[in-house]
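Need a sequence for this fold. Nothing fancy.
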């Protein structure tokens, strides 16, 4: 097993006037050895297109993950999808990116704009072989992977952006490549790249997308662990055990909560530096410092704000500019967990904080546990590898 992983992030726009997007992205992983990503674009828009694309993506991703052939996938799709009475066709275009051991990629494309492949931030042309299956022209490619290699899959809504509004012929693939090469930074995550591209499409459409539009980015990167400690253990005798396990873990360390910070400082035999409280964000308590700890913050209120950012990140990612530029505790945690981390270890103490028993405060032990559990689920949905340990 190597230290590489696939960072996957996508964003989409629904056609103006439609509540459902006619594109669908499905991701299936088998341990750390195999990841299959399918972007499907259903015929038309709205509910029918959404059903077509969802069925297509789910069937193909499941079959490909079980190592069935592309021919089997296409034949199954043709036999499964309902026929459109008006057009007498039943299909969804699709792009498949199959990654094995994070070292080898196979790309299979049918009628979607061809995947853009970046190496060192520059577009690279890659070989394609053509195969006709059930009268459908399928393009196949195999690529050996390096760290930071990036794939960008698009539905045709991206290249139609701006037609008749800001551009005569839409946002051509060559123009999209130029835009990506100009904005690309090695530190950008897959989600950030997808969000920036989809925002540009939204702008070119004048805020009223003429077609369902999806961008899905896959980036090969080094695994980076981050460890987060919140709350003292239920049994005070377990403090040393909890701290020893936490600080022995590789990667960055975040300590959340006043009591927890004091225990961490005592364990490390370092002072807890609170200093003059700087309220960068009036809604988020100030941060502190302990030598040997990467970030020290307040507990429940800060984590609640991080959870709000995580929920938004999984949807439209509209709050990205807030947390990516701010320096308050919640923003700093969001940057470390959403952008830097690939593997996240939570160390959660189950002790009941006497300060939280005040009936005038809307905070309780169950709320703290629920926040951590929900945040862990959100991070898992982002593709992070999560482990939660309770003490």
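Here you go.
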């Amino acid at each position: 097993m190597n230290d590489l992983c696939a960072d996957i992030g996508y964003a989409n726009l629904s056609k103006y006037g439609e509540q459902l997007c006619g594109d669908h992205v499905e991701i299936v992983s088998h341990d750390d050895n195999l990841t299959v990503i399918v972007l499907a674009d259903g015929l038309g828009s709205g509910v029918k297109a959404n059903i077509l694309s969802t069925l297509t993506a789910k069937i193909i991703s499941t079959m490909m993950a079980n190592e069935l052939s592309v021919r089997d996938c296409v034949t199954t799709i043709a036999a499964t999808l309902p026929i459109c009475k008006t057009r007498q066709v039943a299909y969804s275009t699709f792009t498949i990116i199959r990654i094995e051991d994070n070292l080898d990629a196979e790309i299979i494309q049918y009628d979607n704009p061809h995947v853009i492949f970046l190496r060192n931030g520059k577009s690279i042309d890659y070989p394609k072989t053509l195969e006709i299956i059930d009268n459908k022209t399928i393009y196949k490619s195999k690529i050996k992977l390096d760290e930071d290699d990036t794939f960008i899959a698009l539905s045709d809504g991206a290249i139609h952006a701006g037609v008749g509004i800001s551009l005569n012929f839409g946002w051509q693939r060559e123009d999209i490549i130029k835009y990506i090469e100009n904005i690309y930074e090695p530190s950008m995550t897959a989600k950030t790249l997808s969000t920036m591209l989809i925002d540009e499409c939204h702008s070119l459409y004048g805020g009223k997308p003429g077609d369902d539009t999806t961008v899905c980015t896959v980036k090969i990167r080094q695994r980076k662990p981050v460890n987060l400690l919140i709350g003292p253990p239920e049994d005070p005798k377990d403090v040393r055990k909890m701290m020893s396990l936490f600080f022995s873990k590789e990667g960055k360390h975040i300590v959340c909560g006043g009591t927890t910070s004091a225990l961490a400082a005592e364990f490390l035999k370092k002072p807890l530096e609170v200093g003059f409280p700087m309220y960068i964000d009036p809604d988020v308590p100030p941060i502190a410092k302990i030598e040997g700890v990467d970030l020290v913050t307040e507990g429940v209120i800060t984590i609640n704000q991080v959870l709000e950012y995580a929920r938004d990140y999984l949807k439209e990612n509209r709050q990205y500019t807030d947390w990516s530029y701010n320096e308050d505790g919640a923003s700093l945690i969001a940057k470390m967990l959403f952008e830097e981390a690939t593997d996240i270890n939570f160390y959660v103490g189950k002790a009941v904080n006497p300060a939280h028993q005040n009936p005038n405060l809307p905070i309780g032990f169950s709320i703290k546990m629920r926040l951590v559990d929900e945040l862990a689920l959100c991070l898992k949905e982002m593709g992070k590898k999560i482990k939660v340990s309770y003490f």
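For context: Residues 73 and 329 are 47 Å apart (CA to CA).
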